[in-house]
Amino acid sequence: MTRPRSTAPAARQTLTILQFLAHQRGPVAASAIATALELPRSTVYRLLGVLEEHGFVLHFPEVQRYGIGIAAFEMSSGFSRQEPLSRLGRPILAALVDHLGESAHLAVLHGRDVIYLAEERAPRRPALVTDVGVRLPSHLTASGRALLATLPKAQLRALFPTPEAFATRAFVGNPADSTLPAPAQRGDEVSRYGQLARLLDGVRERGYAGEDGEVTEGFASVAVAVRDHTGWPAAGIAVTFPRQNVPPERWPALAAEIAHSAAELSRRIRGRDS
């Protein structure tokens, strides 16, 4: 169902100005805002005045430019406090688990790590190390690889500038019996930027990421990135399963199922019905 178009143009124009300012690297002139958004300058000045009065916009008089204000930052903090990704993602994960019969989780990128926000365990499946709040090296996990593959290469290089940036640790054995990471004993582990770049090229080409035994011995994962309204990676959805349950030739079909759930979460994050 498509919502009826707003009949409040001033509200729509105000939000458009805020969105524009939020995407700039620094304060911009009102004339630049008017030109970019194709709005009358008088309208832009009037709305900027209201936004400035309520703290959503800051005016820098020396350079005659405008930037995002404290009130807008407070709103973004409120967004974080309400844990919208986990709240929106949990029912989507639950539906995915019901459909596939395997466990799923939601993770976000934090520096070189991923942090797990939500997990839904399938019936009769063992506990995984990817519990809520757990932090793991992104380049070892399917969720992390799906997210890293969406980043600009300059940012990726900045995250992994030297071989020392690559943690060579993974969970091994039964995750229910282990709470601490142990050194990985794999010859194919990613430990150089060139290896990571080639791996992520494959993720971009396929449209999904995978890992096989690099987090937990005997378990594999397939993941897809969730993008926000700007196209930036908001989170990753991954399904984890005993290796023998889903052979590699079935991973593309599994990824397609996960991608459907990722698209639904992306739609909900954007707050749109279409």
UniProtKB/TrEMBL annotation:
Coiled coil: none annotated. CDD domains: HTH_ARSR. Residues 71-271 form the IclR-ED domain. GO terms for molecular function: DNA binding; DNA-binding transcription factor activity. One of its GO terms (biological process) is negative regulation of DNA-templated transcription. The keyword Transcription regulation applies. Keywords: DNA-binding, Transcription, Transcription regulation. It holds the Pfam family IclR_C. The keyword Transcription applies. Residues 8-70 form the HTH iclR-type domain. This is IclR family transcriptional regulator. It comes from Cryobacterium melibiosiphilum.
